[in-house]
Write a structure and sequence with these properties.
The complex is a heterodimer of chains A (about 260) and B (about 220).
Chain A (H helix, E strand, L loop, with lengths): L4 E9 L2 E2 L14 H10 L4 E8 L4 H15 L4 E4 L5 H9 L4 E4 L1 H5 L2 H10 L4 E9 L7 E5 L4 E6 H11 L3 E6 L11 H10 L4 E4 L5 H9 L5 E4 L1 H4 L5 H10 L8
Parallel strand pairs in A: 1-3, 1-11, 3-4, 4-5, 5-6, 6-9, 9-10, 10-11
Antiparallel strand pairs in A: 1-2, 6-7, 7-8
Chain B lengths: L4 E4 L7 H9 L4 E4 L2 H6 L2 E4 L5 H11 L1 H10 L3 E5 L9 E2 L4 E2 L6 E5 L10 E6 L1 E2 L14 E6 L1 E5 L5 E7 L1 E9 L2 E4 L7 H13 L6 H7 L1
Parallel strand pairs in B: 1-2, 1-3, 3-4, 4-14, 5-7
Antiparallel strand pairs in B: 5-6, 7-11, 8-10, 9-12, 12-13, 13-14
Classes of the chains: A alpha/beta (about 260), B alpha/beta (about 220).
């Protein structure tokens, strides 16, 4: 039976991770490669790196980071954040990432999804989508871009379906309303999108406790759940979260 | 014969993860699309993501199809991964493609039924049907990372070395004499995947499939 994936997200700025409190004593805080290796050893199923800040040297540093992670971490990982050209996709994939994710750039020019999928295969192309509750939209959710700052005219479900058609192989669905609250995923949004598309959906935004993952798998029908601060803070461990889910009948990978 | 592993490069996706694992084990390897390099090697890794028709087209164009056939016939060991576990069969449903025919059988697509998401993407458990040197020390039911829309159906059930459930039960690994091929990605499957690759590196390439069929 296909297992539910637990994905850890690392926010990287100029080659350094921006959150990582619990690592203070044992690894170089802020080194994404060290943090990735640690999570790998603890049994994480997948990693996501978001490059959250642009700088002149960003691309070079990013490629170097991806390469060093790929040398030590033998599970899939994806890279996103500001990727807007085929050339950037190629660099990241050749450096060893399994997938690249596109977000605002795909809203502005959806062709990047088609181009990426035809060059590298749909399995490499992830649509990152930020959505906000909005009763004016048919699905009840509006797509927002630029990290939530810019609203678009797109309905979340319609955009998810369009992206699937264009060739996206997976959707990482982030709720702007829930993001950073640690109060739980936006279940309704996750369910609407997950049931509305034929590709896997990774729920994101709001994870604070293992119960939140249980709920987003059971009720939100997510294929995977993205977590960040609940493990970066040291409040919960990967093993503890997996034990909790397994005891409640959710299939998760045992390592 | 050089004691080198040839990793086939025929335009089918990203080879960097396979290379990273081989480096991790300090294995001597070359990434190549030249039949002459294949001929000189002691083992072959046939990786790849992608599409059967394009992959077969590229193998024919480069002459790697014939190189693969004669390498296989020579008895040297081969590890197929993902698309390399598909085009070794006789035929694929993917764009109705005639394949290498090293193992008799078909490659079929997962049905789009009852909310079954295709591709099959993520970690899923693998049940080995018999003991094999390449699976030694990998616990029964271990999870491996999959990403594929098509799966192999060996004509002869004894070539099915492992099974996985996704909508239906399919052969997630096949073994035939000097060849092992896996539908999942051992290079992306954490410690159990590393173990499988390390087993392949130390395998002598000999396996008595008739004996194993009797065990199963």
């Amino acid at each position: 039976m296909l297992e539910k994936r637990i994905v850890v997200c690392l926010d990287v700025r100029d080659g350094r991770t921006t959150k990582g409190i619990r690592f203070e004593n044992n690894v170089d805080v802020g080194d994404p490669v060290e943090m990735a290796r640690q999570y790998y050893e603890e049994g994480i199923d997948e990693l996501v790196f978001y490059d959250i800040m642009a700088s002149a040297e960003r691309r070079k540093i990013r490629i170097d980071t991806v390469r060093r992670v790929a040398e030590q971490v033998f599970i899939p990982f994806s890279v996103g954040g500001g990727i807007s050209s085929r050339e950037e996709m190629r660099e990241v994939l050749l450096a060893g990432a399994e997938k690249v994710s596109v977000n605002s750039a795909a809203v502005r020019a959806p062709r990047i999804i088609t181009d990426g999928a035809s060059l590298y295969g749909s399995q490499c192309i992830v649509l990152g989508m930020d959505a906000r509750r909005d009763p004016a939209m048919p699905s009840g959710y509006r797509v927002v871009i630029d990290g939530g700052r810019t609203p678009t005219d797109l309905d979340a479900l319609a955009w998810a379906r369009q992206a699937e058609e264009l060739g996206a192989g997976e959707i990482v669905l982030n709720s702007i309303d829930a993001d950073g609250t640690r109060g739980g995923y936006e279940i309704e949004l996750t369910r609407v999108i997950s049931e509305g598309v034929g590709v896997p959906v990774v729920a994101s935004g709001g994870a604070g406790r293992p119960e939140h993952l249980l709920k987003v798998f059971r009720e939100g029908r997510a294929d995977a759940a993205l977590i960040a601060s609940m493990v970066h803070s040291g409040d919960f461990s990967i093993g503890g979260i997996k034990d909790y889910l397994r005891e409640r009948g959710i299939p998760v990978r045992v390592t | 014969m050089a004691n080198t592993i040839a990793v086939l490069d025929y335009g089918a996706g990203n080879l960097s993860s396979v290379q990273n694992v081989l480096r991790h084990f300090g294995a001597e390897f070359i990434v190549t699309s030249r039949p002459a390099d294949v001929e000189r090697s002691s083992a072959l890794i046939f990786p790849g993501d992608g599409e059967a028709a394009a992959s077969m087209g590229e193998l024919r164009r480069t002459g790697l199809d014939e190189a693969l056939r004669s390498f296989h016939a020579s008895g040297r060991k081969i590890l197929g991964i993902c698309i390399g576990c598909q085009v070794i069969f006789s035929h694929s449903e993917e764009r109705d493609t005639a394949c290498l025919g090293l193992i008799p059988g078909e490659v079929k697509r997962f049905p789009r039924t009852q909310g079954l998401k295709v591709p099959h993407m993520g970690w899923n458990s693998v049940r080995f049907r018999f003991r094999h040197p390449v699976f030694e020390g990998v616990p029964q039911g271990s999870s491996f990372y999959f990403i594929h829309s098509y799966y192999p159906v060996p004509a002869n059930v004894r070539h099915s070395a492992a099974e996985t459930e996704y909508g239906e039960t399919f052969a997630s690994a096949v073994a035939a004499r000097n060849m092992v091929a896996v539908q999942f990605h051992p290079e992306k499957s954490g410690p159990v995947g590393l173990r499988l690759i390390s087993n392949f590196l130390s395998w002598d390439g000999y396996w008595d499939e008739d004996g194993a069929a009797d065990d199963a």
